[in-house]
């Protein structure tokens, strides 16, 4: 009877964990949509827009801390199955946001710096050039930080998986460092994650097929557009 109750509690906790993970991603995409779409709207004043962004940041930070703690608990339980599932879920679901925010970071940084140099050439806009230069240096890192935050849950589970691989699969320190580096690079982390789960844990076969098909279709589309 006691064992049955414990099993039911474990199932409920797993379901609740997945609800939190899905809500985490939902809040992330809602926040990004709010940032990108609503500045052009006249519904919100600047003060309200900033306030709501702060609120989004606080909620997302709370959810992020929850996932980091959960990854630590999974590692302590040595629950490789849950770790792999959460790892793949966050890596795949957060990748578009991470890439979008990185693209915005580059556009704001390079665009702002480039525009400031152009304005320096024109006498009429000479005095506002430093403003755009400074603005790009201030705003761009915000998007870089958001990109890091967007991928941090997946990175936390990646670290959990790397540590479990060292503990249960006998990885060397060099392997752990190498895979940690790969897991820190958006895009490469997906490929490296699939390699880890397939090579060492015999998991993620369906996702590897989907990823391979997506890569082939993407390359085909790029080649078609060039031709």
UniProtKB/TrEMBL annotation:
Keyword field contains Lipid biosynthesis: no
InterPro entries referenced in this protein's UniProt entry, alphabetically: DUF6652
Keywords tagged on the record: Membrane, Transmembrane, Transmembrane helix
Pfam families xrefs: DUF6652
Transmembrane segments: 18-38, 50-69, 89-110, 117-137, 143-164, 176-198, 204-224
Organism: Oribacterium sinus F0268
Protein name (Swiss-Prot/TrEMBL): Uncharacterized protein
């Amino acid at each position: 009877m006691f064992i049955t109750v414990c099993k039911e509690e474990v199932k409920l906790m797993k379901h609740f964990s997945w609800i939190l993970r899905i809500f985490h991603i939902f809040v992330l995409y809602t926040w990004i949509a709010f940032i990108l779409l609503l500045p052009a709207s006249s519904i919100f004043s600047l003060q309200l827009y900033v306030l709501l962004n702060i609120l989004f940041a606080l909620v997302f930070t709370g959810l992020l801390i929850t996932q980091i703690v959960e990854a630590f608990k999974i590692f302590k339980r040595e629950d490789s199955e849950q770790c792999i599932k959460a790892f793949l879920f966050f890596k795949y679901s957060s990748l578009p946001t991470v890439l979008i925010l990185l693209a915005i970071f580059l556009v704001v940084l390079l665009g702002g710096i480039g525009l400031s140099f152009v304005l320096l050439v024109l006498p009429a806009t000479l005095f506002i050039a430093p403003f755009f230069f400074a603005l790009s240096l201030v705003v761009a890192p915000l998007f870089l930080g958001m990109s890091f935050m967007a991928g941090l849950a997946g990175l936390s589970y990646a670290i959990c998986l790397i540590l479990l691989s060292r503990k249960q699969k006998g990885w060397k320190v060099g392997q752990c460092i190498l895979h940690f580096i790969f897991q820190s690079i958006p895009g490469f982390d997906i490929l490296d994650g699939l390699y880890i789960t397939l090579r060492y844990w015999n998991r993620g076969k369906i996702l590897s097929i989907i990823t391979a098909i997506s890569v082939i279709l993407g390359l085909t589309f790029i080649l078609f557009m060039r031709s």
